[in-house]
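User: Run a structure prediction on this.
Assistant: Running it now.
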Amino acid sequence: MNFVLASTSPRRKELFKYIVNDFECVAPKFDEQSVKIKNAKQKSMFLSCQKCKAVLNECNKNSVIIASDTVVEFNGNILEKPKDKQDAYRMIKNLSGNKHDVHTAVTVYYSGKLYTFCQTATVYFDFIREKDIENYIDTNIWQGKAGAYGIQDAFGACHIKGIKGDYYTVMGLPVNRLHAILRKLEILDT
């Protein structure tokens, strides 16, 4: 079976290898910035589906295509990937000492059908000293990450005091649930 991961994310590629060893990565040609959906969960599901459809147009219809999107929500507002250092600083400052939700949606294309699900985890940050925020912002590690952080990075490891839900959902691909769905669809037998 030919598997395609509709992503350029190194984190998703690493996580998808836990399920399937042999697959190709194809960058979805889709303008995420044009989507103005305000509900975080709906937005992640819509974006995941659109990414999958965008890659489907470039692949063999017999392929199994996996697309994913992660949206960070704080106090009912969506935290996108930061535009610049000031935006990243503002996000981390807001998350400091607070909790927020991370919604990761996954769409699977198989045998002419799309299957989409969304999983949510709640992340709890410690209070972060001003100096620690400034030092982190100077590293530029926040670039390209929704909410300006990665749970798997040193900053996340040092300042996230807990999560309620699945770690891999926060990282960008809910491995357990995706694996279960691929087995249920009889795409995988292991």
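The chain has seven helices and seven strands.
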